[in-house]
Amino acid sequence: MPQSAAPGKVMKRRKAEIIEAAAECFMERGYHATTVDDVAARLGATKGRVYHHYATKTDLFFDVHREGMQRLFNAQEEAKAVEGNARDRLIAMLHAHAVAMLEHHTYETVVAQGVQVHRFDQVTPDQRQTMQELISSRDEFETLFKTVLSDAIAEGSVPPVDVSVAVKVMLGGLQWSIFWYRPKKGETPGQRSELASRMVAPLVAGFGTA
């Protein structure tokens, strides 16, 4: 059993390495300027290694985007279960999102590039389907925040606001960190958490005290 499982683990690890290298290239150069040769060079391998797993650069970009979104969803698991009222959960979720944006800066920069870079590109039917799935994933992520903000308004811990607009503004404000934040050598998780708190504070200040 272990022997038969080993090849699968190796394959998974190699694919993860390709995704990591691609994320770095897409972040630095953007989707259109990045080539499969760039990704292969970052890996120190031939482009045949990349093509072994991905038929096109677009398919690779989609997997980087998918991984970035999964990391954002993963970051919300504990925050959604925070004890307290809905306002407390909202603040915890915003903080978790801010931390994830900082910790996964490379991937989230690619997510921010978004599937819109392909809206006017020639894509296959399968790729178009994947585009729709990624768009749905982003909508689902927004819904997490819309739900808890609606709950907070219903319980009276947050004043009435346009939920859809408010969530887009809050998430957009945190997402903007991809333009001004750069990971620092030796930066600790505690320092990132403290920065995340400062990012979230002005977003919830308008809600007043609970």
TrEMBL record:
Keyword DNA-binding: yes
Occurrences of domain HTH tetR-type (ranges): 12-72
Ranges annotated as DNA-binding: 35-54
Keywords: DNA-binding, Transcription, Transcription regulation
Pfam families xref list: TetR_C_24, TetR_N
InterPro entries xref list: Homeodomain-like_sf, HTH-type_TetR-like_transc_reg, HTH_TetR, KstR2_TetR_C, Tet_transcr_reg_TetR-rel_C_sf
Stretches that traverse the bilayer: none
GO terms assigned for molecular function: DNA-binding transcription factor activity; transcription cis-regulatory region binding
Gene3D superfamilies xref list: Homeodomain-like, Tetracycline Repressor, domain 2
Name of this protein: TetR family transcriptional regulator
Record organism: Primorskyibacter flagellatus
